[in-house]
Amino acid sequence: MTRFLLKRLGLALITLFLLSVIVFAISTVLPGNVGRAVLGPFATQESVDALNEQLGTDRGVFEQYVDWAGGLLHGDLGTSLSTQVPAWDLLGPALRNSLQLAFVAFMVCVPLSILGGVIAGLRYGRPTDKGITIAGLSFAAMPEFVTGIILILVFSIWLGWLPVTAQWEEGANILTQVKYLLLPAFTLTLVLFGYIARITRAGMIEALDSDYARTAYLKGLPSSVVVRKHVLRNALLPTIAVIAVQVGYLVGGLVVVEVLFNYQGVGLLIYEAAREKDLPLLTAGVLVVGTVYLVVMLIADILYAVLNPRIRLGAAE
Amino acid sequence: MSTVASPAPGAAPVRSEARTARSERLRLLLRTPTVMFGVIVILFWVFCAIFPGLVAPYNPIFDNQLPTSQSPSWDYFFGTDTNGRDVFSRVLAGSRNILLIAPAATLLGTVLGTIIGLVTGYYRGVVDDVTSRLVDAVLSLPLIVTAILIVTAVGNSSRWVVVVIIGLIFAPVVSRTVRAAVLSETELDYVQAARLRGERSHYIMFSEILPNVLSPVVVEFTVRLGYAIFAVASLTFIGFGVQPPSPDWAAQINQYWTLIDPYWWMTLFPALAIASLVVSVNLVADGIREVYER
Q: Chains A and B: how many Cβ contacts under 8 Å?
């Protein structure tokens, strides 16, 4: 178990290092001339040179990377160009907002999707199963802005039940905040429902078809007990892995939903930084998103190992 | 196909067996109602993309031909927009960009990914370890975030830049699937036999292994195509994709969604068009996956 954890941690650190190299390569090496890329083709050569000197992008690539990565290790993510504020001062609150939205979306999404998957699995091959599967597949395929726009039209403009944006007034209480977050959360739920329900359904079908389920039925247990005590436990294990992958998606893939609902999270910050060609802030934002994803995946790996006795007892290593 | 080079006695029956399997798969696919529905919708949009003038009742491009901001009626099925253009005609003409960019990007990603997967799965060792970690690192970023970063760094979002970006991001994902398939193939006798015959590595990879891992490649291509449409539309919607003069669903939504109350028709109909296309592609992809993986 300890060896498994150490190995996972080591791999995660290597991946994190490579991620920083890739992000650095795209944001600093790819433009060729960062000052020119930020200021555009009509800026004077002097102002381009001045910006390059200010950003330090007139130095060698290796030196720049070491300097930047060294800053990262000290918690310095760079300075935003457009606001001249340390990037973390903007990213910190935005990250908290994104996590809040992701949390609400999860509270809505996970129970619904697991329920959908369990029902589909129990009704395998019948119309209910087909309906859930096709609906899940269709919603998962649709871009968030398409489902979001349809939800906004129906629930806020036509029915008037929920607000159009996710921008509540200063000092709104938690219930009001949740009300503002419901539509974006539902948009994300529709995208995620298909994936989670699909894996749950597959797990259910496999577990229902297993020898231990048959034994349980044959020894005369009522089917509710078989499902609850024997099938669900095994069926839900792969679901945990999928849910973890989706957390990663939630934290980073929020860009479109946050832009659509004008919600001040990391996604909207990345979008605005890109619009204003604020490369340092954009780079920092992208790195934060990747790091959050890697951390979540690491936690999921550990959780999976703890829940799965085959890994916990070291047999699978 | 010359049979002179490989006089193996079993060669001919194997080939016809493969053909039977292929026609059997096709028959199964055409008998699935969801797949047929998807195929019809996709063909409809492809037709609209090739002959935009044939189906649109009004000119989809020029401003101020019609009264502005009319709600849907018998004259204008989907209403008109604030520039006095017929929304119905613009929706019919709006499939072209996405139907060019998404398949091109998917093809690029699939070809690159297949090559990477073949090489890493065949050689393993250090090349494989390093590539796997790089793939992990790329996959820790959501596609849309990576795309925004690259578009901003390059300072250009023309059609081909979007194709290359999405293709490059897809390559690692495809390579992972292909690599897994190659790993199980290299254990098999025919690969060992080819090695013992002294065949060159690239011959073994591309002529011996590749034909046997084509099923996952085909499945991966169709699944990726759905994601590519998703990605292209999302990028265009937030203003980082192609901004064409010609009609484009996501660009229309980008332009009009702030006016959704009360001008809902300018946004809703292009949104439904995107929905119909992505859902259809995914229904077909799902059908193909089921047929290939049975």
A: 150
